[in-house]
Amino acid sequence: MDNYSDYWYQSSDGLRLYARDYPCSATGKGNPSTVLCMHGLTRNCADFAGLAGHLCSDYRVLSVDQRGRGRSDYDSVAANYTPLTYVQDMFGLLDRLQVSEVILVGTSMGGLMSFIMAAMQPARISAMVINDIGPEVDQRGLDRINSYVGKSKPVSNWAEAIAQVRSIAEVAFPDFTDEQWQDFARDVYREENGIPVLAYDPAISQPMSDANSGAVPPDLWPLFESIVKVPMLVIRGESSDILSRECIEQMRDRNRDLQVAEIPQRGHAPTLNEAASRTAIDRFLGAL
Q1: 125: buried, middle or exposed (CB in 10 Å: 19+, 13-18, 0-12)?
Q2: How far is 133 from 268, CA to CA, in rounded Å?
Q3: Boundaries of domain holding 35
Q4: For the segment 4-24, what is each residue's pLDDT rounded down to a tens digit?
């Protein structure tokens, strides 16, 4: 049974956006801390169903569909598909819900958004869990993502959908079972008139080809250095082609309090349902 309520809100430019709102289930917590979960480029709020169900025993959890994904409106102006726009949407959501302080959980693009949010409103961000992204993005991973985002062929049934996502993502999840691939496909696709279709606007890929769009920030080291006082856990997939071990070491050089967890048998990006991910997140949040 779903343990969240649907929350709809409007962006500053008039789009209808969607979030899942998981209330804290703990008794006696009149004002629990809020966790905001933000997905990667082609994903949606379903990515965090497992983690949100786990965390809502102690926290209120918001899991969002960024514009152009999931149940949120698609943007007719593709140039708006950039982290800075998404960040403004997130602050709008927090303002609407009167959330004055928040813990951020960001996967890939959501992690870049977390860096930007902490730099823009540092007093509002109490901690960050950054999933497989850093201030410097490995070009190998960018090339791989650019090879398929917005370019996937249409499928006609769920078997084809499962085969397609597996061909793209198996390198990141070598130990997935057939059942896990089915669940993965159900999160990435939605059904329209009995046919699976990708749950994102193909136009999200357009700004990535424009070096001046801000879709892929070229150098976030100065921004990272400005937020080193914010408690931060970085999770890295063991074989990630987006977040290198060299980048992790540079992050540690700049932030001696940085916590890091490397997840075995994972590339970009861990699901955060792994036992090692949950242990690291629980330990990090428990120490705040």
Answers
A1: buried
A2: 9
A3: 5-150+201-286
A4: 999 999 999 999 999 999 999
Is 69 in a helix, a strand, or coil?
strand
Give one word for 194, left, alpha or beta, with left for phi > 0 and alpha for psi -120 to 50: left
CA-angle at 206, arms to 10 and 155, nearest 5°:
90
pLDDT per residue as tens digits for the range 125-180: 999 999 999 999 988 888 888 878 877 889 999 999 999 999 999 999 999 999 99
Q: Name the percent of the chain lying above pLDDT 70.
A: 95
Angle between helices 83-96 and 109-120 (to 10 degrees): 60
Residue 171 lies in a domain: no
* CATH, residue 277: 3.40.50.1820
Domain-embedded: residue 16? yes
**Rounded to whole angstroms, how far apart are CA atoms 72 and 15?**
8
Residues 68, 7: Cα–Cα separation, whole Å? 16
Domain count, the chain: 1
